[in-house]
Amino acid sequence: MQHDGSLKTEIAQVAATMVVEEGLEYGPAKRRALKAMGLPPRTELPDNELLEDAVREHIALFCADTQPTELRALRELALVWMQRLAQFRPHLGGAVWRGTATRLSDIYLQLFCDDPKSTEIALIEHQVDYEVRSVTGFHGETVDALSLRSLCRPLQETVGVHLMIYDHDDVRGALRPDARGRSPRGDAAALARLLEVGV
């Protein structure tokens, strides 16, 4: 019987390939990895930190020459949207914030506003087409997400931009550091600093 830790690492490596090469989110990638490896659906999955480590390793091995440029292009596009939506206190999360994004990654912005409908009104005023979906929020609650496509000129691709709508006061809990002491998301000023130092 394979040792639990090494099995989780193996699942993480298979899932990381799907995250990097197919642009899958962590949850679906882990479930697909189980299937691909012929493991029972109830097999214990690696946590997101282990998967993120595997994603970073995969990028370092296979995408080291292309990924930094792709990440920068996505961060610059994220900053454009954050500036457009500045009144809603946008924060960037996900792979684009963590530095593991590739050209297949979407941009995830969390907005904190008093009136959830005000974001939709702002998009309509800017003649932006969007779809409303429900997604799982920070604390497992259901939140509205406005999903749109935006042209990323350096990559010559349209990129998914997802705006998650939270209450104005949720911003406090949103900035609590993760298990490794890192901020799970950042505002426009924090993103501009990352772009400046080229991390």
Please give a handful of descriptors for the protein shown.
19% strand; 8 helices; 199 residues; alpha+beta; Beta Polymerase, domain 2; five-stranded mixed sheet; globular
Order of helices and strands: HHHHEHEHEEEHH
Helix-strand makeup class: alpha+beta
Estimated helix fraction: 40-55%
**Range of strand content:** 15-25%
Name the strands of the widest sheet in spatial order.
1-2-5-4-3
Stretches where pLDDT is under 50 for at least 5 consecutive residues are: none
Distance between the termini: 41 Å
In the CATH hierarchy, what is the class of the largest domain?
Answer: Alpha Beta
Secondary structure: number of strands: 5
CATH-level-4 superfamily name of the largest domain? Beta Polymerase, domain 2
Main sheet?
Answer: 5 strands, mixed
CATH-derived topology of the largest domain: Beta Polymerase, domain 2
Task: Quote the average pLDDT.
Answer: 91
Rg is 17 Å
Explained architecture:
- The protein is α+β, with helices and mostly antiparallel strands.
- The protein folds into two domains: 4-62, no CATH class; 67-197, Beta Polymerase, domain 2, CATH 3.30.460.
- The chain is built from eight helices and five strands.
- It has a five-stranded mixed β-sheet.
- A hairpin with a 5-residue loop joins strand 3 (131-136) and strand 4.
- Helix 1 (4-22) packs across helix 2.
- It is globular.
- The model has no long low-confidence stretch (mean pLDDT 91).
